[in-house]
Structure formats: structure tokens, C-alpha cells
Amino acid sequence: MPFVNVQTIKGIMTAEQKSELLRRMTDLLVEIEGQGDPQFRQSVWIRIDEHDPEQWSLGGVQPTATMIAAKFAAARRD
To answer: Of the four, 2, 20, 54, 62, which is 20 to 30 A from 9 by CA?
Structure first.
């Protein structure tokens, strides 16, 4: 029985994106670990934990919500 814990920054993903992530990760685990057995789906646990931006550090910098929003806005434009 696999248990996957996704750690992410609060507010980055919409509810729809989280649902899609959960669905795709489940499908992948069924395909690989469950060897395609549809019954294996019932054994897959996935949890998304969201944390405030200030609880993260990247390269020694603690990002603010504004910094993260700006970074993702720039990535979407590219």
C-alpha cells in the first residue's frame, strides 16, 4: 500500500490542479507498482500538505507570498 506525501506552498495550486495531481499520481502508481491492476487503486494513499511560504527556504532565502506569486506569474508567461 503506497503512501505519497506531497509538500507544497499554500496557494500555488487551485482545487482543480490538486484534483488532477491526485488523479495522475494515483494512475501512475496503479500502472507501475500495481502492475496495471485496477483493484490496486483502492490501496493508494496520497496526501497534499500545503505550508505558508514563510515556512520554506530556497538557497537560504525565505520567500514571501508576494515573491512566490511573482515567480509563478513569470513562469506562466514564458
So the answer is: 2
